[in-house]
Specification:
The chain has one helix and 14 strands; from the N terminus they run βββββββββββββαβ. The relative contact order is 0.11.
């Protein structure tokens, strides 16, 4: 991709299946890293993975652990299956928490999109907050469950949630809980956009009501 596809702007590998043999595996879009940055890919869409945690009932339980670092033109990243996450190895290190500096070598990334059909973001894993590494994070209308640590650690994103009903919140286990982890008081500074008809229910639902500003989605 780096050497020969000099005009490639949209890379859709959502139908590819990555066979992951251990928990530390990630799919490096640019394995050369900062030695030879990718200068053309603007939109990246990723999908399936068969990982160390996979089961016959849920082959995507481990999700696609994608590492898009040093794709310097990247503007949008779309995750298409349950459990997909951004590799912690792709994140800039800052003050001990890897997501405080965003994605390494991706200065133009402006939007993380969780596609329609996805029903959950990782269930309470310590790295859940790595979803929030760019200015806008879009959650689909199909989202039903979301990890309790997604928004609480240094998240600076604006969240767009298209679900009419506030998704359930899960912690490790998974165990149903009622609040997001918010040790740093970030949620009070964040903006949440939801369907206009659902504003009141989001404002009165534990956890979601912690967002500082809740506004209607305006297409």
């Amino acid at each position: 991709i780096n050497t020969y596809l000099h005009s490639l702007e949209i890379l859709d590998i959502s139908d590819a299946i990555y066979i992951c043999t251990n928990l530390g595996y990630d799919v490096k879009i640019n394995p050369l890293g900062e030695m030879a940055v990718n200068r053309t890919i603007r939109h990246l869409i990723v999908g399936n993975a068969l990982g160390a945690n996979s089961t016959a009932e849920d082959p995507n339980i481990g999700g696609a652990v994608v590492n898009p670092s040093y794709c310097i033109a990247l503007e949008t990243l779309t995750l298409t299956v349950n459990g997909s996450v951004i590799s912690e190895n792709a994140l800039k290190q800052s003050s001990g928490w890897p997501n405080t500096g965003g994605l390494s070598g991706c200065p133009n990334l402006s939007r993380l999109i969780i596609s329609e059909g996805v029903t959950r973001l990782s269930l309470g894993d310590v790295w859940d907050q790595i979803y929030c590494v760019c200015p806008v994070v879009e959650l689909p209308s199909t989202i039903e469950m979301i990890g309790s640590r997604v928004f609480g650690s240094y998240c600076r994103s604006t969240i767009v949630c298209r679900a009419l009903v506030p998704p359930g919140i899960f912690s490790e286990g998974p165990t149903l809980t009622t609040n997001f982890y918010d040790a740093y008081g970030q949620m009070g500074k964040m903006i949440l956009y939801v369907p206009a008809e659902s504003i009141d229910v989001y404002k009165t639902t534990s956890g979601w009501s912690n967002f500082g500003t809740i506004l209607p989605i305006e297409e």
